[in-house]
Automatic annotation (TrEMBL):
<dbReference type="Pfam" id="PF00005">
    <property type="entry name" value="ABC_tran"/>
</dbReference>
<keyword id="KW-0067">ATP-binding</keyword>
<feature type="domain" description="ABC transporter">
    <location>
        <begin position="6"/>
        <end position="250"/>
    </location>
</feature>
<dbReference type="InterPro" id="IPR003593">
    <property type="entry name" value="AAA+_ATPase"/>
</dbReference>
<dbReference type="InterPro" id="IPR030679">
    <property type="entry name" value="ABC_ATPase_HisP-typ"/>
</dbReference>
<dbReference type="InterPro" id="IPR017871">
    <property type="entry name" value="ABC_transporter-like_CS"/>
</dbReference>
<dbReference type="InterPro" id="IPR003439">
    <property type="entry name" value="ABC_transporter-like_ATP-bd"/>
</dbReference>
<protein>
    <submittedName>
        <fullName>Amino acid ABC transporter ATP-binding protein</fullName>
    </submittedName>
</protein>
<keyword id="KW-0813">Transport</keyword>
<dbReference type="InterPro" id="IPR027417">
    <property type="entry name" value="P-loop_NTPase"/>
</dbReference>
<dbReference type="GO" id="GO:0005524">
    <property type="term" value="F:ATP binding"/>
</dbReference>
<comment type="similarity">
    <text>Belongs to the ABC transporter superfamily.</text>
</comment>
<dbReference type="InterPro" id="IPR050086">
    <property type="entry name" value="MetN_ABC_transporter-like"/>
</dbReference>
<keyword id="KW-0547">Nucleotide-binding</keyword>
Amino acid sequence: MNDPAVEIRGVHKLYGALHVLHEVDLTVAPAQVVCLIGPSGSGKSTLLRCINNLEKIQAGTILVDGQLVGYRRSGPDLVETTHRETCRARQHIGMVFQRFNLFHHLTVLQNLIEAPTHVQRVPKGEAIERARTMLARVGLADKQANYPAQLSGGQQQRVAIARALCMRPKLMLFDEPTSALDPELVGEVLDVLRDLADQAMTMLVVTHEIGFARQVADRVVFMDQGRIVEQGTPAQVLDDPRHERTRRFLERVG
Ligand code: ADP
Ligand code: MG
């Protein structure tokens, strides 16, 4: 049996006295696409950030590809990972945010080779090859010499996705990747996500695009007030929700 790509057990996250995640359990199998939906403030971004070890959790465990996130076993104890170990683990996880977060003083190609050459020590020629392959994959082969400001929001977001893919991640985390886009640009970004899903990328996607979740997700997870309220197939959760809170949320966004 393969390890789950992500295994979250009994996770609690607090910001000071604010209890943001309560007893969260979630498993993502390799090549699965899980869409995470829920109202603003329900803890979706926090959960993604915990998986990528951008936030420390206060209880529970998170494993990515069978490896503990943020901690290392030392005999019977768990010790926090060093900054170095954290950075190494993070290389296998690609994250794309609502805002594109490109380096504005660098061209598209320079954006794409930055992390592979500096973090993974990939030779420059090989990094450029990878970058061109990924740009072609997101339909932007002709934009490598452009600066981010010369691209539309949808194109910038596709560059951000290509940049994450250049690190050859095993897992991609998307936090509302289309929420900052003009409506007419949403489709081109969702098409890239759909394509990644078809190519068996493991993905956890926070989204309000219910149509996309219905089409692409293997599983939909509904969160509210820091808890997973229900999860199941898109048909179960989106078309026949068991919980009143899920129903009310879907009426608002649908
Ligand atoms: P969502 O992504 O579902 O909108 P978030 O994970 O961003 O929800 O936020 C969950 C809760 O945690 C909210 O109440 C938010 O205000 C709070 N929160 C998020 N980040 C921080 C932070 N860095 N410090 C303190 N509170 C935070
Ligand atoms: Mg959020």
